[in-house]
What we know:
The chain is α/β, with parallel strands linked by helices. It contains 15 helices and 16 strands. The protein folds into three domains: 5-66 and 199-326, inorganic pyrophosphatase (n-terminal core); 71-191, CBS-domain (Roll); 334-445, Diaminopimelate Epimerase, Chain A, domain 1, CATH 3.10.310. 35% of the residues lie in helices and 19% in strands. A six-stranded parallel sheet has the order 3-2-1-9-10-11. The protein has a five-stranded mixed sheet with strand order 12-13-14-15-16, sandwiched between helices. Helix 2 (46-55) links the parallel strand 2 and strand 3.
Amino acid sequence: MPDKTYVIGHVNPDTDSIASAMGYAWLLRQRDGVDTVAARAGALNPQSAWVLKQLKLDPPVLLTDASPRFESVMQRLDSIRPEAQLGLAWTLASRTGGIAPVVDEDGKPYGIINGFSLFKYFTEVLGPQPGDTTVRQMMSAQCKEAADTRISKFPANGHIRDFLNRILRDEANEHWVIDENGLYSGIARQRDLLNPPRLKIILVDHNEPSQAIPALEEAELLEILDHHRLGNPYTHTPIRFTVDIVGSTSTLVCEQTAEAGLSMPPALAGALLAGLLADTLILTSPTTTPRDKQAADRMARWAFAGGSPLKGETIASYGKAVLSAGAGLSNRKPEEVVSNDIKLYEAGGFKLAIAQVEVTDLVQLSEHLAPLAKALDDLRDRRGLDFVILLVTDIVRGSSRLILSSNAPPILDDLPYPPLPDGTRQASGVVSRKKQLLPVVLGLLER
């Protein structure tokens, strides 16, 4: 695990975040020979799940935080049965640095044989008349007679920091690492637990700490590839930092792939194309640049090639299908709607969040307005925010409505979006949180 580099997008990942993590991990493997793993910091949203299903791609691995876990330091040593002869344990220990894990037939840890347990056992067996016992007799004893059964057990996916006090109080040099069923996973040595290797992380599609995987400060941040505003990330050492003015991070991955003289596999290109088209609303968003259009054309050639699941598609038809897969309110819980695509910010002494959801018709908003408003208030209180804004975007007509959490700061009354009788605000022509809504909100708070 420590030798791998995790390429991961922001929490509450959207399709661009998922696709760019997959694409950049692939590129780093192909171009630079880096042992990368594409990861995600949260559940797939409906759109991303649909895209990966259509392309028959496995989702990135779920990485809920960057804090070192027991599985990152454990060693999967060969084990021996409790009924086996002690001589076999001696042979095993000679290959494993002086440790022989004793494991039941059902896979549960029994005890550990090491130098201390052997000395204790030999002392008890020999007693006051050591000449009465031969080495052959001692080595023919069963392992369970010499195993130390008082060894602590720790969960493989547990955070080392959460058990640090217990580890420090324990005098043992080795500890069991077990899976969720209590079965043997490996052995963790005390010295490794007190100085665990940090996960190697590359961030894509974000750079603000508030949007990053939890416990990022415990990891080794190697690189950032993004297309958003700067969020002042802190690093211990210099890193490669690429932030560019394009409509999607997938665009940047595509450009680097082309610069390396590589062609992307059709399915992966289809995922990146979906990320680009979703972020730019099929190249109609104000964030769209000529580079995005060039990248879309290039990825379409890769993605729509013969034998591809997308053969016969066009940018327009595929883009419409991608947007439709993520649009709508009817089949989603209000709390999912307000939290699936959300970004956290701080400005002017305020802590805020702006969420976005896409629909194909704003008429459907009225029947969902009350539960959405309540979900916004619950989200605000749960996360300790001053206010939350939900941007409901009609992807067909290119317009939006704003829903604000209750008791929003009076300064938001100056938002240049006229209030409507139902309490929402009309944001005509607004489709981009990043380029259209966010600058307006931050400008108000910081004036």
